[in-house]
Each structure stands twice: as structure tokens, then as C-alpha cells.
Amino acid sequence: MIGIENEDLRITVTQIAGILARRIVSWVTLNDGLSKGELYGMIRFGSCTEVVVPKNVELLVKKGDKVVGVKEYKDFVDGLADKLRSDKLDFIRLADDYEPEPYYVPLKVDGSPAKFLKAKPKTDASKCDQCGICYRVCPMSSISEDDYSDVVGICIKCQACIRKCPQGAKYFDDEDFLSHVAMVRENFTRRATNKFI
């Protein structure tokens, strides 16, 4: 349960996970400040959220309404639907001799394929202070809540745990992955222009 309050209002929000998923992730701690529309957590594989508000709050929804979290998102989807229903669609025309580029294969610095699918971040126990930030920022919820050095799920190599660790305790040591990162930095850090086909 998370309590949210400002000078005018105090509410509580309870994230409720399904019986199968049972994975609730919270990215905030006590006294964190939140802006309107800011994400504070998520429920893996969805479920429901219970919001408790004071009796004097005027509710703008009723039972059976479909609620969209961000109005701009709904406006975007409605606009997209209008365009798709319109007769004025402008389809992309490809040249007769156009051939799609081959499927992307990650490469090492020497140009050979980099195989790092099973690479996972490691933890330097002498630096880790058990703050749990890595656990909270992992978008896949792959870091164990009981042991922050244990990566129990799929790692997508986003490196959020490494970038956010204040102690510098998280790191990769997989040679193929490190070589691929070096290759990307060496060849793709320049600003690129859009390619129109």
C-alpha cells in the first residue's frame, strides 16, 4: 500500500497482483516526491489497483467505466483511429529494387558475432550496501528481492541496475557483451540522420 498526499488531499493506493503473477514492483520510498502522471510502480502481468479517497472527493467515474491513466494517451489513440478510418491514408511506397536489410546480429569489436544471451550482471559484495535500488529499477523484475546479487529472471542487458547503483557494485564481466558494448560506442555514438526508404 502506498500513501500519497499533498496540502489538499491524502489517498492510499494498493496494487493487487493476480494469483499467478504475484509480482508487484514499487519504485518509490518514504517521502519521495511525485509529479502528476509519474510512474511509481507496476504489477507484472497486470491485475488491479485499489484507490481509497476521502468521502468529500467528487468521483468522475462510475462502476463500469473504462479508465485511461493519461488523457494524452487516449487522445493519441483516438486520433490514430480516425486516421485509419479515413480515406486519405498515404501508404509508404518502396522502390521496386528495395531489399530489406538482414536481421541484426550483435557484433564484437573484431566484427565477429557476439553471443551474450545468457550474460547477467554480477555484484561486488564488498561494495554492495544492500540498498535494493537494483531490484527496484530492473524492468524485468529479474533481481531477487531476497538476494540482490542473484539474477533469477531474464536479463535484457539494459544496464539500469549498473547505472543506478550508487556504490558501483553492479557490473558485467561477460567478454562478448563487453566487446559488443565497446563496438557500439566506437561505431554508433555519432548523431545519425534519418534514413528514408
Main structural class: alpha+beta
Give the uncertain stretches in residue-range form.
Answer: none
Distance from N terminus to C terminus (CA atoms, Å) equals 50 Å
Radius of gyration: 23 Å
Q: Major sheet, described briefly?
A: 3 strands, antiparallel
Q: Roughly what fraction of the amino acids lie in strands?
A: 5-15%
Label the overall shape. flat
Strand order of the largest sheet: 1-2-5
Mean pLDDT figure = 83
Number of strands: 7
Report the order of strands and helices: EEEEEHEHHEH
Q: What's the helix count?
A: 4
Question: Helical amount among residues, as a percent range?
Answer: 10-25%
Q: Would you give an account of this structure?
A:
The radius of gyration is 23 Å and the shape is flat. The protein has 197 residues and is an alpha+beta fold. It is built from 4 helices and 7 strands, in the order βββββαβααβα. Helices cover 20% and strands 14% of the residues. Strands 1-2-5 form a 3-stranded antiparallel sheet, with no helix packed on it. The protein has a two-stranded antiparallel ribbon with strand order 3-4. A hairpin with a 4-residue loop joins strand 1 and strand 2 (10-17). The protein has helices at residues 71-85, 133-137, 160-164, 175-188; strands at 2-5, 10-17, 24-26, 41-43, 47-52, 122-123, 170-171.
